[in-house]
Amino acid sequence: MPTIVGGMLQHPPDGAPSGKHHTMTSRRIAFLDVDGTLIDHQQRLAPSAIEAVRGARARGHLVYLCTGRARAEIPDHVTAIGFDGVISAGGGFTDRGDDHVAQHLMPPADQEQLISFFEAHDVEYILQAYDDIYPSPGILARVRPIFDGAEAGADDPAAAAALARVETRMAYRGPAPAGAIAKATFAGSHPDTFTVVRDGLGDRFHVITGTIPYLGGSGGEVSLHGVNKGAAIAELVAQLGMTLDDAIGIGDSYNDLEMLQVCGVGIAMGNADDTVKSYADEVTTSVHDDGVHTAFARHGLI
To answer: Which GO molecular function, any one, fits this protein according to its record (predicted)?
Structure first.
């Protein structure tokens, strides 16, 4: 298993132990990704996931959303389940109940560097603030096929409404305020965009791909080095007076890798690709086969 050093993943030599020690208390804290974990790519939410979250909380466990989405992008039918808090923008912001307890923002100079780089390389983007998103003028046209495909399979009214809401929010509304942004998602016009962005921005930024399956190597996410879900979880757990051994993280994508590593138990969804699964302690069933409920039941949360 890899370890986190300075907020970034590093892999141990082959055969090295993971370093995890499962000495948890009876009360657990679970962190759930949204896309591909709680909901599928048509925004559909399984009733079993609702039952699992509410059941675990009723038994005294804590359940947090831990998503790459900004708060403004989380579907209403997901937040309506009820959670103890939210880590959003891939670790950029943390809410504990109604209290905003942490944020990790890009300094204005870094934000300007990022925007200038995107514009110079024909890369469309969405900048994520705490309570809003700021799309570039051409992002909706570039990701239009995502909505076309998702809408074709969205037979659930709540899922269809969530898709329509996201699409509306992706319309350009002007520039983002300086110093309010924690993360950006991006979409280029060619399959090596991720490589161009990663190599061009340098070590100050943390650039990943694979979080939007349709885009492949033409899309990804950018945050400051050390800002990720795993770092935010470690920060929150310390605030709560709990230990990371008490934490369970469940996810399916590349922005979940640090979460899977830092939690006492990291669980990959059955629909995750093999690389993501390799970072996990175990694999549950898929998002279409009650994956969250299966994992919660296995670990005695419900």
So the answer is: phosphatase activity
